[in-house]
Design goal:
Strand content: 15-25%
Shape: globular
Strand order of the largest sheet: 1-2-3
Structural class: alpha/beta
Number of domains: 1
Order of helices and strands: HEHEHEH
C-alpha cells in the first residue's frame, strides 16, 4: 500500500528488506530514509539485530533526512524508538519524525502523511 501511495505522488520508493544475510547499502543517492521495526524487547528497547547490523554497515546517510517508525507492543515502545533514532543519528542522518503504527499495511496513509 505504501508503494502505491508513493507512485501516485510521483515519488520513487525503494524498499530494502533487512534479513540476516543482507548486504550493506549506500544511501548516497536517496533524498530520504525511512527505517522501521517491530518492538522485540519490551524492557531494553533493542532494535532487531539484523536491522542494527545492516544500518551500522551501510553508508551514505550523512546529512540525509530520515523518519523512523515502530510497530508497538504493550511496553518498550519509547526505548525502541529512541534506539532506532540513535542509530541513524550516529550515521549522520537528521531524524525529522517518528511514530508508532500498529500495522504498516493498514496505517500506510498515516505513515505517508508524515513523510510529506
Amino acid at each position: 500500500m505504501l508503494v502505491n501511495l508513493f507512485e501516485k505522488s510521483e515519488n520513487e520508493l525503494k524498499v530494502f528488506k533487512v534479513e540476516r544475510s543482507s548486504n550493506a547499502d549506500n544511501f548516497f543517492s536517496f533524498d530520504f530514509i525511512l527505517a522501521g521495526c517491530p518492538v522485540i524487547n519490551s524492557f531494553k528497547g533493542k532494535v532487531p539485530k539484523e536491522l542494527d547490523l545492516y544500518l551500522q554497515r551501510s553508508s551514505g546517510m550523512e546529512r540525509k533526512k530520515s523518519a523512523v517508525f515502530i510497530i508497538p507492543k504493550f511496553i518498550g515502545n519509547e526505548k525502541t524508538l529512541k534506539n532506532l533514532m540513535s542509530i541513524l543519528e550516529k550515521k549522520g542522518s537528521f531524524v525529522m519524525d517518528f511514530l508508532q503504527i500498529k500495522s504498516p499495511e493498514k496505517d500506510s496513509k498515516l505513515l505517508f502523511s508524515h513523510l510529506k
